[in-house]
Structures are given as C-alpha cells and as structure tokens.
Sequence to fold (162 residues):
Amino acid sequence: MDSIPFQTEGFTLERTDDKGYILDCMKGTILSSVNETERELNALWIQNTLMVVASNLKDPRNEAFILMHGNKRAGMLWLGRSNDQFTCEPIGYVLGVFIEEGFRRKGLGKELIASAEIWCKENGLLSLSLNVSATNTAARALYDDCGFSEQSVVMRKELYKK
Fold:
C-alpha cells in the first residue's frame, strides 16, 4: 500500500523507506515515554531499543508512512502485523506514532490512528493494538479518545534507585 487515505486537508500519508526519519521519530517517542531518571539509568536500554527498531524496520510485515504537509514532514505512522497475545488472531499493531512539534494539538494524531484502522481493514485485520508508557499521559489520552482500552497491564518493580 503506497498511501493511506488522510482526511485532514493539505496532508498526505505516504509509504516510506526512509528508515533514518522513522528512527529519529521513534527516538523522540521513546524519550518522551520515560522520565529523566529513567533516561539516565536506562541509556543502554534506549540504545538497544533503537537497535531493535532499526532491525524491525526491515521486517516485511511492517510498513512505515510519513505524514506530509506539502513538502514538509509533519510526522509518521509505523504499523505492523502481529498476533494477539491472548487469542493468537492476526492483528494490526501500531509500532509508532509521531507528530512533529509544530503540528501537534491539531488532531493529526487522532487522524493517524484513523488511518491505521483503514490500513488494518484493507489488510484483513480485525483489530488494532499498541503499547503505551503509563507515564506518557498525552499519548494515553489520545488512545483513550480513539477508543482503545486496556487489555493487560505490565507491572514493574525498580530494584535499583539512584
């Protein structure tokens, strides 16, 4: 699929192989999902996560799209095909959503999620899943507003504190 319909006038959502841009966006997403202490304590984790992202960009089940406003990049949407961890049914998976700073708070994130739903339907996938950091309140609010609900909760206990 070379593009996904995008409703907001003046914007297009085009498939891309620009791994550098997607990686930069994912770094921004990762850094915004952890607090400053976690960034300092988990620099290696962040680096390793970005290496996994780079590897997953090569996976043929995944597709990346750049949101364009004219000839300016406004964000990205990275989608994949997976299996539900409980039912094993094939599902769509939002691997990454990112809106550039100057384009935020204009409804574009919600529109990207709507485009992800279209992508899923066109690929015969019956549901859409994603992960979001508990501390990323802006993203959680967006996903709540788009109709997502919790399926499971990952719990963690810090063993080392600075």
